[in-house]
């Protein structure tokens, strides 16, 4: 009886999962496109994100500053890592991202509720090669045992935030919120990265930049 219930439950779950796929619509593609975005590239984008009800939760246009990140290495949500591949400079896309490729059942902060489908209008401004010698893993692993502990990750994040605050990169309100949510952020990183749940992120598990020569 219990086994039967479990099979049914698993089937329903799989069906919901399969139905929620990433949708990528090309709104504008330039005639000339020599270079297309690929895994490891640094992309500079403008984006506007909305929820199903049309409420905008974030836009780089409001800040008048495009957003730069490395594609395909887990710096951004999976919907972006997968939905922004093979893109031309000046190309515009609409992404519809199901929760499991976005912020999942937990949501993010006060702005994105759990289980939310995300809609993004994006424009690719620039593609550049990945930064040299980006070895974030080594930087975080302060005792060099090839494992990242919660303390090491926590310390690294704290340093990053202080640096960002000093250079005025983040708005101070945002920064305060991030510092307040600091422990939660560490937990979220471990949820995502510590695949075998042994309390440490190994070199293999780590999805960020970890190579000496790129
Ligand atoms: Ca370590
Ligand atoms: Ca682990």
TrEMBL record:
GO cellular component, one term: endoplasmic reticulum
Keyword tags: Calcium, Endoplasmic reticulum, Glycoprotein, Isomerase, Repeat, Rotamase, Signal
CDD domains with a match to the protein in the record: EFh
EC number: 5.2.1.8
Region (Disordered): 190-214
Leader sequence segment: 1-18
Keyword Iron: no
Recorded catalytic activity of this chain's protein: [protein]-peptidylproline (omega=180) = [protein]-peptidylproline (omega=0)
Record GO terms (molecular function): peptidyl-prolyl cis-trans isomerase activity
Residue span, PPIase FKBP-type domain: 40-128
Keyword Transmembrane assigned: no
InterPro entries: EF-hand-dom_pair (IPR011992), EF_Hand_1_Ca_BS (IPR018247), EF_hand_dom (IPR002048), PPIase_dom_sf (IPR046357), PPIase_FKBP (IPR052273), PPIase_FKBP_dom (IPR001179)
Limits of the EF-hand domain: 135-163, 181-214
Protein's name according to its UniProt entry: peptidylprolyl isomerase
Source organism of the structure: Trichogramma kaykai
């Amino acid at each position: 009886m219990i086994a039967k219930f479990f099979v049914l439950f698993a089937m329903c779950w799989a069906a919901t999962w399969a139905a929620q796929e990433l949708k990528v619509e090309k709104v504008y593609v330039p005639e000339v496109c020599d270079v297309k975005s690929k895994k490891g590239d640094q992309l500079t984008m403008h984006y506007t994100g909305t929820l199903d009800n049309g409420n905008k939760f974030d836009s780089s246009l409001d800040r008048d500053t495009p957003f730069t990140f490395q594609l395909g290495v887990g710096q951004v949500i999976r919907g972006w890592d997968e939905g922004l591949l093979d893109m031309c400079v000046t190309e515009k896309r609409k992404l519809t991202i199901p929760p499991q490729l976005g912020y999942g059942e937990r949501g993010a902060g006060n702005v994105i509720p759990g289980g939310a489908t995300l809609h993004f209008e994006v424009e690719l401004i620039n593609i550049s090669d990945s930064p040299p010698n980006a070895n974030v893993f080594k930087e975080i692993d302060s005792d060099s045992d090839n494992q990242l502990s919660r303390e090491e990750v926590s310390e690294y994040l704290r340093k990053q935030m202080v640096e960002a605050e000093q250079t005025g990169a983040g708005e101070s309100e945002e920064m305060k919120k991030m510092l307040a949510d600091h422990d939660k952020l560490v937990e979220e990183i471990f949820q995502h990265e510590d695949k075998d749940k042994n309390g440490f992120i190994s070199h293999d598990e780590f999805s960020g930049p970890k190579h000496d020569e790129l």
